[in-house]
């Protein structure tokens, strides 16, 4: 965990770790206050209630995820002009980034909210939903660009493939946590890389990228 830049960030760090380790309902405000060494007034200065904390925590997680995706796929575009080569490079960079995390990915707040949605208010649930739609839009735009130059070798709906990309990444996080095998996430991303490559590359050129 990086050194927090403020008390607010410290509260979010502690809350996120608690939610990922034992769930939202089991992570109490009193526990967060004690670990952060602040008063109740100090907590409520930053967050009016636990659901406002959840919204801020989820938004921060989503912003960080978007920053990572921007970083790796933008780098892929810098390396390759062809949209397929660029996307495949981005997936490899993402796999490398995930494999370099010393203790593996800490966990997925999106999945945590989805599986315990009744514990969260409507705004948190809607934020979670919009995040997934944003990922769909991101990956679908890339797939449409690729398909315009490299028509897929199988009849597929690209929206479903876009969702599969999100599902593979998020599912890889869950698998790696459940198995306590950090390498599983990178392996899943590299398997996704192979699928995208086989789907779009002209027959006979699969070994070229």
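^ structure tokens above, recovered residues below v
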């Amino acid at each position: 965990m990086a050194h927090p830049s403020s008390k607010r960030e410290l509260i979010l760090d502690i809350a996120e770790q608690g939610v990922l380790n034992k769930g939202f309902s089991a992570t109490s405000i009193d526990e967060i206050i004690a670990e952060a060494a602040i008063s109740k007034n100090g907590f409520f200065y930053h967050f009016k209630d636990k659901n406002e904390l959840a919204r801020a925590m989820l938004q921060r997680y989503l912003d960080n995820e978007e920053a990572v995706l921007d970083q790796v796929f933008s780098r892929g575009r810098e390396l390759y002009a062809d949209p397929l080569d660029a996307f495949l490079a981005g997936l490899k960079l993402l796999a490398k980034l995930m494999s370099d995390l010393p203790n593996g990915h800490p966990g997925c707040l999106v999945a945590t909210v989805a599986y315990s949605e009744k514990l969260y208010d409507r705004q948190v649930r809607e934020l979670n939903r919009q995040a997934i739609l944003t990922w769909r839009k991101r990956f679908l735009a890339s797939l449409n660009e690729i398909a315009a130059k490299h028509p897929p070798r199988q009849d597929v709906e690209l929206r479903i493939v876009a969702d599969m990309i999100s599902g593979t990444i998020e599912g890889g996080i869950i698998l790696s946590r459940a198995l306590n095998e950090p390498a599983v996430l990178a392996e899943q991303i590299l398997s996704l890389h192979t699928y995208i490559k086989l789907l779009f590359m002209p027959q006979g050129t699969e070994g070229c990228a």
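The longest helix spans residues 50-79.
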